[in-house]
Amino acid sequence: MVVETFENKMEDEPVEPGVSQADFIKEELNFDVDLNDSMTQAALNDHPTEEWIDILGNGQLKKKVVKQGKSGTRPNRSDICTIKMVGKLKDNTIVEKYENLKIQLGDVEVIQGLDLAIALMDKDEVAEIEVDPRFAYGHLGKPPSIPPDATISYTVELKFVELEEEIGSLSISQWKEIGNKKRERGNWWFTRNEPTLAIQCYRRALEYLLPMESRTSYQNEVEDSTTDAELQALLENRMTVYNNLAAAQMKTQAYDAALKSVQSVLSYQPQNVKALYRKGKLLHYKGEHTLAYQTLLQALKLQPETKAIQVELAILREKNAKDAQHEKNLYRKMLGTSKNNNVIPKNIKKENKYETTSKLTCSLIGGATAAILGVLLYRLVS
């Protein structure tokens, strides 16, 4: 599903060959690994078959080797893994089954529990993996087959491990295919209210949907064989990802980052209504009400019937009116003409309005005269 509503830096760098599994988990998966912990040592090293390993130490992700694989062949982040997988509920109902599923490790192309557990498997290994709902499909489940809050037991075989292809060696059609696959996965996480995982997927998608200025000489040669329509389609896909990235960043309250994302869209598509709408909301969140109102007016001119824009403008119109009134009150206080100063106690005789005006005028003239004399005296003395 593509995120098309009007409604929020993680860098993915490949792990160098030879990096230990402990470093992979600690640095790349953000888990605090204690190498002296006996359970951690058991998880990181080869262990006997039929022995359950508590990967996270909280019972929510467990792994048991059924068949040993080739030692020293564990995949690194960004490797392409081909797996055979069967997932079952506690009543043994099969809910997922794949013969040759290809995933890019670390890009959450499967549920988090599997993404973490497969990183601890060797090539040709067969393992049982038990995943708690938190690292599976959570409270939402996956209708119609997977109910909410379901623990899933997987039998996984890691059949092949391949290095990620260099982006520069791919064709434009491959960029588009891989980039859009990662965008769609980001959309899936976004609809499940997992904006952080969605952001990770969108960032990866942008790496494949390259801007023109980032192309290598090889890519420029490839570009010569492509049509303007193909290049335009790639650019439009990139703008869609930036728009969705902004929506995910807004959900995490990363407003400055989201503004950069919408500006990336508007630099190429200044009349992109979704980007203008999100920019208006972001400016609203940041307290820049006047600029937000102006931005949303631009969006409304392009799509006058959009209710979301109308509602946001109505809210800002009221806030701008309050801001203006607040400024007037400040000016009154500065000039000593606030409403409170115009209230006359009952026991004081009301003055004639002409007398009041005359006194105010005299007071102002007297104050100005005193200021001028002060300046002249200062000059004479100095």
Question: Could you describe the 3D structure shown?
Answer:
The chain is an alpha+beta fold and 382 residues long. It has helices spanning 21-28, 38-44, 112-118, 172-191, 195-208, 217-224, 228-251, 255-268, 273-285, 289-302, 307-335, 353-381; strands at residues 52-54, 61-67, 80-88, 94-104, 126-131, 152-162. A six-stranded antiparallel sheet has the order 1-2-5-6-3-4, covered by helices on one side. Strand 1 and strand 2 (61-67) form a beta hairpin. It starts with 20 loop residues before the first helix and ends with a helix. Residues 8-18 have low confidence and may be disordered.
Q: Mean of residue pLDDT?
A: 81
Counting DSSP E segments of at least 2 residues, the number of strands comes to: 6
Overall form: elongated
Which secondary-structure class do the elements indicate?
A: alpha+beta
Give helix % range.
40-55%
Low-confidence stretches: 8-18
Summarize the model shown.
The protein has 382 residues and is an alpha+beta fold. It has helices spanning 21-28, 38-44, 112-118, 172-191, 195-208, 217-224, 228-251, 255-268, 273-285, 289-302, 307-335, 353-381; strands spanning 52-54, 61-67, 80-88, 94-104, 126-131, 152-162. Helix 7 packs antiparallel against helix 8, helix 7 (228-251) packs parallel to helix 9 and helix 9 runs antiparallel to helix 10.
